[in-house]
Amino acid sequence: MILIKETENFLALGPPREKCVLVPTMGALHAGHASLIRKARSIAGPQGEVVVSIFVNPTQFDRKEDLEHYPKTLTEDLELCESNGADYVFAPTTSEIYSHDHSISIAEKSLTKNLCGATRPGHFDGVCLVCMKLFQISRASDAVFGKKDYQQLAIIRRLVRDLNLHIRIHGAETVREDSGLALSSRNQNLSPAHRLYAPAIFQGLNMARQEHAYGLTDTTLLCALVRQHLSNLPFEVKIDYLDVVDAVSLEKLDSTEGKQAIMATAVFFGSVRLIDNLSLNFQG
Ligand code: PAF
Hints:
This protein is of the alpha/beta class.
């Protein structure tokens, strides 16, 4: 595996590759990322290439403290990339990616209205900008994104469609602990008590999915089930949002009838904000 830090050296690798699969990350890699890299490896096949980018993108942070405190674990990350089949790791500095006077931006105006977009203004525009740059630099034929960030995946698909980008986007299943808790680098910031009860998010979503399978399509009632489950915890959690949305437009739904629906939530356990989602009636 080769570590590349300068964009120029990356570009010097040659013309667009037939099968080059990019896994964009911000580092602090865990088993969830490992599964994205393994999926990229299987898409690339033995002859293709797998590139993992590690870049903590400043334009997607709405809070300066989060950017400053973002964990940096490059040595461990490189090991994880190597052992899961990456051929290259692209780990540029901020000035490699953003000129000091960069002045072009990307604005997504529809899919960002709800869910995380509602409480994190500008976040997804920053994600779109950096992904566009990473797609251009790597000249990847394919890219893999996790379904845990369902809204991000939907927005990246829209970016590719609306700007006619030559890249195929693949969604990878959320990796969960046995308890159901979705893997996230934020889990390590939970207090022991919060860590113990954080699987309640998945349990709540799963209960709603089961009731939906039995015929409950009213989204207010479905959300009430999850709220009820979370209100039974021995401490209070703050629900940032909990919605059932259309799987493609991400518009909020009153009923799931005739729709492909996603139930998505962000919940604060103390100061740690955890997100998760489940598809209610289709293979998301
Ligand atoms: O999901 C992430 O880690 C980031 O949003 C991404 C896609 C690497 C862009 O910075």
